[in-house]
Amino acid sequence: MTLMRWVYLALAVWGAIHPMYYFVSWFLEQGWNLGAMIDAWYVNDATTGLTWDLTIAAVSLTIWIVAEVAVRRNWSALIAIPATYCIGVSCGLPLYLFLRSRPVD
Fold this sequence. Notes:
By secondary structure, the chain is mostly helical. It contains 5 helices and no strands.
């Protein structure tokens, strides 16, 4: 495995664990109410802007993944889509780059 693949994998793991720590901490403090978390994303203009920034990045990444999978037939790379929406772009993007950079058979 190349150095870049290791870097992508490390970033995907970090992008899964680090943000999840804050999400779980928030849920433990506020209760396991997804609606309250979504409300917190729009509490002020700064968080609203960040929410939209990440939403647009997630949609763009999804379109890119689907377009590339259609051409490359690398079906396992589709797992990056649920990772993007369930965890975040910080996990989904490096995970996709890791899966995309594997040697072609």
